Amino acid sequence: MQSADVYLSYSWSEESNALADELDAAFQKRGVVMVRDRRDAGYKASIGRFMERIGEGRCVILVISDAYLKSQSCLFELLQVARHGDFRDRVFPVVLSDARIHRPQDRVGYVRYWEEQIAELDEALKSVSSANLQGFREDMDLYTEIRAQLPGLADILRDMNALTVDLHRESAFTELFEAVLARLAV
User: Fold this and answer.
1) d(CA 104, CA 154)
2) Nearest to 57 by CA among 40, 92, 39, 81
3) In terms of Cα–Cα distance, which of 109, 98, 87 is closest to 159?
4) What is the per-residue burial (b if ≥16 Cβ within 10 Å, else e) of 12-39?
5) Within 10 A of 160 (CB to CB), how many other CB atoms are there?
6) CATH fold label, 2-185
7) Interhelix angle for 136-159 vs 72-83, to 10°?
8) What is the secondary structure of 82-140 as a DSSP string?
9) Are 1 and 31 within 8 A, CB to CB?
10) How many degrees, rounded to 5, is the angle at CA 83 between CA 99 and CA 183?
C-alpha cells in the first residue's frame, strides 16, 4: 500500500467516527493509507503538531458534522488547512445530515455557539487572578479566530457539491477517491 498525502479530519462522535472508519477502509482497499489520528498520532505525541500537519496536507477529507463544527480541535484543524492556502482545492468534504451549513440562519447558530464559548471562557477568566494563565489566552485567541473565520469557511463548504453520505456509500466512495487522486496528480 502506498502512503499518500491524504489526511482525515473528523470528530469522534459516533456517526463521524463510523464514517471515518468506512472512508479509511475504502481508501485502503484502493491502496491508499490515509493519515489519521488514531493510527498516526502515537502515545504522548503532540496533538497540536499532528493537527498542524493535517493543515499542511495536499488532500484533507473533512467529515463535517454538528459535533465537528462545535469542536475546538476539529476547527483548529480546519483553520490550519485554510492558513496553508488553496482551501477549496485541498478539502474534500463529506457532510453529515446534522451539519447545518446550508441555510444562513443555521450557520448563524454556529457563530452564536462560538460567541457563547468566548463569553463563557471570558467570564471564567475574570473569576481568577490573571497571574500564570498560560494556555487560557491561547484558547481565547483560538475561539476568537474560529468565530471570525467560520462564517466564510462554512460558506465555502456549503457551496461545494459534496454529495450525500448515501450517494458516497452507494458508490463505495468512488467519486471522492477519484477527486483525491486527481488532486494528488497535480
Assistant:
1) 10
2) 81
3) 87
4) ebebbbebbebbbebbeeeebebbbbee
5) 13
6) Rossmann fold (3.40.50)
7) 70
8) HHTS-HHHHEEEEE-TT---SSHHHHHHHHHHHHHHHHHHHHHHHTS-STT-TTHHHHH
9) yes
10) 75
Instruction: List all residues 6 or more positions away from 57 whose beta carbon is below 8 Å from its beta carbon.
Output: 5, 6, 7, 35, 81, 90
Residues in the chain, pLDDT under 70: 1-4, 186
Domains of the chain: which residue ranges? 2-185
Q: Amino acid identity, residue 47?
A: I
pTM higher than 0.90 for the full model?
A: yes
DSSP code for 146: H
**172 Ramachandran zone, left/alpha/beta (phi>0; psi -120 to 50):** left
| Angle, alpha carbons 55-57-63 (nearest 5°) | 70
> Phi and psi of 96, rounded to 5°?
-75, 155
Give the model's pLDDT for residue 133: 83
State the burial class of residue 134 (Cβ atoms within 10 Å of its Cβ: 0-12, 13-18, 19+).
exposed
Q: Which letter does DSSP use for residue 42 in this model?
A: -
Tracing cell 465555502 back to the chain, one arrives at: 156
Q: 80 Cβ partners below 8 Å, 6+ apart?
A: 51, 52, 54, 55, 56
Q: Among residues 82, 98, 69, which one has the least CA distance to residue 11?
A: 69
